[in-house]
Amino acid sequence: MQYQTKSGIWDSVFAVPTAVVDQNLKLAGSVQLKALLWVLRQGGASFSDKDLSQALGVSPADARDALSYWQETGVLQLQASGMKQQTEKEKPAPSPVPQKAPASAPVAHFSPLPRPERPGPAFVSKRLEENKALQCLMLDTEQILGHTLSASDMGSLLLIHDNYGLPCDVILMLVQYAASSGKGNMHYIDKVALNWADEGITTHLQAEQRLQKMTDLSRAWSTVQQAMGLPERAPTEREKKYAESWVLQWHFPAPMLKLAYDRCVDAIGAFRPGYVNKILERWHREGISTAEQAAAETSQHRQNRQDANKPSFDLDAYEKESMLKFTGGGR
């Protein structure tokens, strides 16, 4: 009797380097691992960034990041003609003038707003092997954001830690705030982290105080936005300062904000933050905190005009005249 083995799916297999498991299994993300498996499956056949991104269901940028990771770790050695041409074009580009740029680096080092280059996958992998706290940072960030970090994401976090000088606990506080505010993207996190570094916010207490202020300012603008019926949008820096004064410092409730808004629109036909600010500033100065008190103020001004033998008093004209005097048009 003769037998024949039926291997099924084992009839078609490909090899995976042991270094992938031994050195990169903990460090590589899901996209990187999927990309490697897909590339190895091609058996040396040529492919493009578009082919890889479509096969993985990711953006071309993420596909290139994944390939870059395996190239820098030495697992893959891709011979792409486009890459060769790019490398050859880049070599003559550093003329004697650009080569002098590193000499000016020490000057940039003392600048208050340096922007170091984001580290590549190979360097990130090495740093994670050396530092377990950084490994935890990456894992905790993935849990908070709810997705696997790309190679560029991990590079950004390492940049924030190593170059900006923010410790892991402070970075996680920022990531948590960004996620809870609907801004859980690395661009926003990196931008805020750089601002914190410039301002010397590097401790848990400092970060806690700044996040509380950011939360309060966000709440203040939300109160203004809802009270005045403004469209959903990000406020300007000037509007943030106005909202801070109106809500956090002067403690005007929503009805008073709406009343000031209505008087502004009735007087000049549009919302002008500077105009509204002068109304609320006057009310704050005169201790007016309710609609009844605001109405009494108007009645008092009307009575004063009548006592001075004025034929009439135009409330709109009064608001417009007094406010535009201070705002130069309310802008």
TrEMBL record:
Residues 141-210, 233-296 form the DnaB/C C-terminal domain. Residues 81-116, 291-316 are annotated as: Disordered. InterPro entries: DNA_replication_prd_bac, DnaB/C_C, DnaD, DnaD-like_sf. Pfam families: DnaB_2. SUPFAM superfamilies: DnaD domain-like. Belongs to the DnaB/DnaD family. This is DnaD domain protein. It comes from Caproicibacterium lactatifermentans.
